[in-house]
Write a structure and sequence with these properties.
This protein has about 280 residues and is an alpha+beta fold. The longest helix is centred in the N-terminal third of the chain and has 37 residues.
């Protein structure tokens, strides 16, 4: 990494070395190179340390709540804030600092980004920290692109039975995202219960919503449907799902967001099989 930056700086020096005076554009270019190096060092260090602190939290106690997870993350960034010149710099972005990772995570405009599926994929790669209590399950993915959290909770008193149908308890799934500088952007959630009889499954109750966080105030967020229901037929298996979708526009707030959410719809969901097995991207509680 150091050699790469040195090479970039040498190339820059060769470009301006023959000039008697240094232009304002040249000075700005050198400043950007310095800012990119500083951002790379800060994000690499902070993402590693956050992951270690969450790992320590997981090892320290059996039951870990969502509040405790957020406390660890927010306490870290409060004590180790990103340099102001990075947070306020409009001329560089995460794509400049980590171009390979950003290209890998690029999303097409028409593509829906499912937080559930994203977390499931990272779990397959064994890159997710999972926490639980008796009624909750929380999966946390930390890397240079930011922090993604998928939290599911169950209301144990909400399950009912009827003559022909059985009903699941009401469960809620919440997706949260911090950008690469540790600023929380938004929460998006969907909740529901399902009725099933072994051969059919239907949505019994449904709800959903989102909350823009302070550091997401520069985002253009558009409600694309909160707490909607759908049926899914996949390879002969039937499912019922409740989902919420939020349209994100490319604005200042996502400059440091790992997935390049340029005019993209973000989704969270919760679903059930015909046997009443409720699922999210993080698995069952």
């Amino acid at each position: 990494m150091k050699k790469q930056f040195t090479a970039l700086l040498m190339s820059f020096s060769l470009l301006v070395g023959g000039a008697v005076t240094v232009s304002a554009d040249s000075l700005e270019g050198k400043e950007n190179l310095n800012n990119i190096a500083e951002a790379r060092a800060y994000i690499t260090k902070s993402s590693s340390e956050i992951a270690n602190e969450l790992e320590n939290l997981k090892m320290s106690k059996e039951n870990v709540t969502l509040i405790e997870i957020h406390d660890v993350i927010e306490s870290y960034y409060e004590n180790n804030p990103a340099p102001l010149e990075l947070a306020n710099n409009d001329s560089i972005s995460l794509e400049d600092v980590f171009p390979n990772e950003s290209q890998k995570n690029q999303l097409n405009n028409e593509e829906t980004f499912s937080l559930n599926e994203f977390i499931s994929q990272q779990k397959e790669n064994e890159e997710v920290l999972s926490f639980s209590t008796e009624t909750t399950k929380t999966d946390v993915y930390v890397d240079k692109s930011g922090i993604f959290i998928l939290h599911s909770e169950i209301d144990p008193n909400s399950a009912i039975r009827a003559a022909a149908w059985s009903y699941t308890a009401n469960e809620r799934t919440t997706g949260s995202a911090y950008n690469a500088l540790g600023l929380k952007m938004f929460d998006l959630w969907a909740s529901g219960s399902f009725r099933y009889d072994g051969s059919k499954v239907e949505v019994a109750t449904k709800d959903g919503g989102y909350e823009r966080k302070f550091w997401g105030s520069t985002l253009e967020l558009t409600d694309r449907g909160m707490g909607l229901s759908r049926t899914v037929d996949l390879e002969g298996y039937k499912y019922a799902e409740v989902y919420s979708r939020l349209r994100t526009e490319s604005t200042l707030g996502f400059r440091w967001f790992g997935l390049t959410l340029t005019d993209t719809t973000v989704e969270v969901k919760i679903g059930s099989t015909v046997n009443g097995n409720v699922y999210t991207g993080g698995g069952s509680i």
